Records
---
Amino acid sequence: MAMGDQKNDLTGLMMNEVITKLEKWAPLSLAESWDNVGLLIEPTEDMPIKNVMLTNDLTEDVVQEAAQKNANLVITYHPNIFQGMKNVTRRNWKERIVLDCIKNNIAVFSPHTSWDNVEGGVNDWLADAFEFTESKPIQPRIENPKLGAGRSLVLKNPLTLMQAVESIKKHTGLSHVRLAMARGRNLESTINTVALCAGSGISVLRSVPADLFFTGEMLHHDLLEACQSGTSVILTNHSDSERGFLDDFQEHLEKVVFDCQVKVFVSKLDKDPLITL
């Protein structure tokens, strides 16, 4: 099959069926109140969804890729529309994305923090970088304490900071991460507890007692506060703390959530904007 041809013989699912199945796995009510989740772009033509593309960020390159691969639904982890748009013109890249999706009959759905907070979602995937005896949400939901933001882990066995670094690199597939060591610690210092949150996690992690914070990005003064207060920090870059989940989740989404009624694939052009030189 050529790269630009994702045609298949599946009958597909109508948009309302797709959304029902997505919300059955991760209700949008799990998203944070500030978030913008759900169906963000709806094509003018109601047609069966046969090809679904997963991406962490929806860029113009990713939209072109979706069109070339005949994807009629893009599930973008980060919402491409977050704040209100006053215009939809071709002068701005975010507005061009909206126009090009509609032009190519591509629907856009964003789950964002609903996939963070659900059981088996992004934060649980991050937690799987470690062997642990206990994992629970840092900010549990009142209606179900197994759901919620962040994860607090008690490790099965103590790890040195260096071992934690290597475990995270192996799990995420990253060649490097950044480490800020707590005052008085070194690479051989051991940790027993981890608090983690995908993306920019300080609003969830702040003041949580843990030997290690694990997230995507933090501001300098938040890093300094953590380290001077006795907590080491490992950072991956924002989207690199999330993107690997899509590769692991793709098969489950296709076979379990969608019951093999659509084809699901992960964008090849989606990437973190930061590179290491």
Note: The CA atoms of residues 231 and 249 lie 31 Å apart.
---
Amino acid sequence: MGKQKKTRKIVEKRFAQMKKMISPNDSRIKPSERKGSSKKKPDPHSLKIREVPQSSSALFFQYNTQLGPPYHIIIDTNFINFSIKNKLDIVQNMMDCLYAKCIPYITDCVLGELEKLGRKYRVALRIIKDPRFERLGCLHKGTYADDCIVQRVTQHKCYIVATNDKDLKRRLRKIPGVPIMYVADHKYTIERMPDAYGAPKGAI
């Protein structure tokens, strides 16, 4: 029974402490201090401000007017590895796919990813150090390339992205006017560019 009395006393003390708190409607509280508790009701007749992302001036509906020869192509890490597995020369096969001059671009994070993969991917490192490959500097931290590529093509609509990564392709399809090049059937194929020679037949 002694334990029950002790617990009852503790509970009573806590209730006493709770009662000591002043209610927000107390007359002793100054009106300036009471402002935090009072919330203004939203005016139903006021104009609602919505932030809509501005569409790029390079787009004519879904058609990207900034795309044209020479094509600027950002290459992802796994696209290089797929090209090596299929024994495809990157620059030559890009030109065969698009029937135009192509300038491949490598970002610092893609280079960092390949360097992290170790000696197994030294052939890929040797390929991208070719003088025909242009370098794009990155300002972000780390070597995660997907976010960097998505951000870059969202800001600048002049790029084609070369990747075989399913997650990255899914993210890029949400951005209008960005064609995606990938390896399929031992050759390069491009989607969202129906007028390109390498586009799959029946593409819209």
Note: The radius of gyration is 30 Å.
---
Amino acid sequence: MVVEIRTTLYAFWLSSCSWRVRAGLHFKKIPFEEKPVDILREKRHLTEEFRTINPAQKVPALVIDGTTITESMAILQYLEETRPEPTLMPNTPLLRTRMREICEIIVSGIQPLQNVGLQSHFETKEKFHTFTKYWTERGLQTLEKQLKNTSGLYCVGDQISMADLCLVPQLYNAVTRFQMDLKQHPTVSKLYESLLQQEVFKETHPKNINKKIQE
């Protein structure tokens, strides 16, 4: 008898890091169960129970192939290396480098500074938003210049990659949580609106995930 090892994603529906992994699993057609971890109201990520899953007490965490992997980019790399088709990597060394540059702009230069966990370190919510919007705008300026040179239908040419999985969730955060206007960045804005219509992002969109949780 073959014992099935279930793939489980521990995630928060509104988390950008969770969304990029959710989208990666969906794109690669990997069946998985999503277990919600409320990091806002219930703060389930801070429980001792969740610490046994991820010692850093952050989402996402992916249980796959009999092991647990944390950190969204490490998870995506693992999925790509163990399940290379369909691929999330461009087909030349230079294009893969461009993809990684875009990923780094987002996951190092924008996402951490939007993290809700930072808010408690500011005197007011308004001061936190001012701080976050400043650094997000800096990141958007960089992305606009980068994507002018690399984008086609996707961030890097006409092939979806990890860069797209990073871009969409972070821009969604910028627009919905921080009411940022992308019109000043036409390349970024056009690409974002186009990618939102892609099946991979529609199916894994936070609104759809939250609706399933509430059912």
Note: The first strand starts at residue 8 and ends at 11.
